[in-house]
Amino acid sequence: MFDKVSHWFGWGSLGNWCAGVGGALIGSYTGQLFNGTTIPAASGYFLMGVLALVCILVAEKGRLFGQGEQYAHGGSEGEVVAVGEH
């Protein structure tokens, strides 16, 4: 069953590695800015929030709180069915 997709198995761990290294680099930079106040930490949280929002906007092609195409018009293909109902 997994033979068709086995060549994709390593990409998830690579993405996690990149996220970990990126977070460590950004955290290290923010830590170097520490001057005894909370301003560097607060600005780091703010900038990371803005960066996350930009990533979401890029991934969603500019639609932040849009509805998926398959659910936009309702109908049989967009209906939500409760567990046990068929």
* Overall geometry: flat
The oligomeric status of these chains comes to single chain
Q: Share of helix among residues?
A: 40-55%
Number of strands: 0
Quote the beta fraction. Answer: under 5%
Largest sheet: none
Alpha-beta classification: mainly alpha
* Rg on CA atoms, Å: 21 Å
Q: Secondary-structure element sequence?
A: HH
The tally of helices reads 2
> Could you tell me how far the N terminus lies from the C terminus, measured between alpha carbons in angstroms?
26 Å
Which residue ranges are poorly predicted, with pLDDT under 50 across at least 5 consecutive positions?
Answer: none
General description of the model:
The chain is mostly helical. The mean pLDDT is 78. It has helices at residues 9-32, 39-59. The protein has one domain.
Topology:
Blueprint (H helix, E strand, L loop, with lengths): L8 H24 L6 H21 L27
Short description:
With 86 residues, the protein is mostly helical.
What features would you highlight for this structure?
86 residues; mainly alpha; 2 helices
